[in-house]
Amino acid sequence: MNPNDLQIAEIWVYLSGSPLFALILTLTAYQVGSFFYQKTDRNPLANPVAIAVILVAIALYLVDMPYQKYFEGAQFVHFLLGTATVSLAIPIYRGVAALKARVFPLLIALLCGGVVSIVSAVGVATFLGADSAIIGAFYPKSVTAPIAMGVAERLGVSPTLTAVFAVITGIIGAILGSHILNLLGMKQWWQRGFAIGVAAHGIGTSRAFAVHPEAGTYASLAMGLHGILGALLIPLLKNYI
Amino acid sequence: MISGLVQILLWQGLGELISHFFLPIIPGPVLGLVFLLIFLIIKGHVNPSLALVSDAFSQHLGVLFIPAAVGVILFLPQLKANAFAVISALLVSVVATIVVTAVVLRFISKKDSHESQ
Q1: Which residue, A74, B21, B83, B109, has most beta carbons within 10 Å?
Q2: What is the ipTM, given to two decimal places?
Q3: Is B93 in Cβ contact with A53 (below 8 Å)?
Q4: Residues A126, A135 contacting (CB under 8 angstroms)
C-alpha cells in the first residue's frame, strides 16, 4: 500500500469511528429527500423519510458499515424522538378548541377507525400467514411514528418494523385518501381531514394541509388524539386479542 | 428556545419517572405529552419559547425516525418472504380505516345536527 492510501484509510477510520459520520449521513440524506419532496410539489411518493432511509441504506452498503455501528452514531438523533413526542402536546392543545364543539363524534369515529386499523392489518397478515414478528409490528403502525415506536418497544415488538410500516401506511393514506373520500361522497373538510389523520398520521396530515387548511387542522388533531389513545389502549388490546 | 427545550425535557423526565415506577406499559414520553397537554389546558396558553421548540420539532419530525427505520436492512429477508402479506395488510388497513372513520363521523354528526334542529 502506498503512503497516500494509508493516509486516506486512517482519516476514514477516524471519521467512521465518531458519531459525526452517521449524523452527517442521516441529515444529508434527509436534506436530499426534502429537496425531492419540494421539487415534486410534495408528492407523497417522494416522501423525504423514505428517500432518506433508502439513501442511508445504500451508503452503509457502499462503505461496508454494519447497521449497529451506524446506529451508535445516529442515536443522538434517535434520542430526540422522545422529546419530539412530548412536544406534540402543543399542536394537540391548539386543536383542542376545534375538538370542544364536536368531541363526541370525533372520539367515537377515532375509536372505530383505530380499532379497524389494527384488526384489519393484523387479520389480513394472520390470514396470509405472515411471521409473528411482523404481525406484532402491525398493532401500533397507524399511530404517529414517534409514539408508535415507543409503544412497540413496550410491547416487545420491533420498533424498526413499526416505523417502516408507519411510514408506508402514511404514504398509502396520503396517496389514496382523497380518492377514497371522493368515492364515499364526503363533502365536509373537517370530516375528510379527520379520517386521513386517523388512518395516515403525520404524512396524511401534511397532505391534508396541502389540500385545505381546515382538513389539515382536523387531521393533525386526529393524529395527536390517535397517538395518545393508541399508546393507552393498544397495549390492552394486544393483551386481550 | 432553550427555556422551551428545558420545559419539554422536564415534562419528558417526569413522564419517564412515572412510567418507570407506576405505568411501565405506557412509554414515558407519551405520559410527558399527556401531562404537558393537561398543564396547557389548565394554563390556557402556550408560551412563545415552548411554541418555537415544538414547531421546529413538528416541522422535521421525520428526520428523527430515520436511524431506527434504516434498521429495515436487517429485516429485508424476512420482509421479502412476507412481502405479499405485508403489502395486502397495509393496503386493506389504510382503506378500511379511512372508510370507517369517515362514514362513522358523517353518520354521527348527521344524527347530532338533526337532534339539535
Answers
A1: A74
A2: 0.88
A3: no
A4: yes
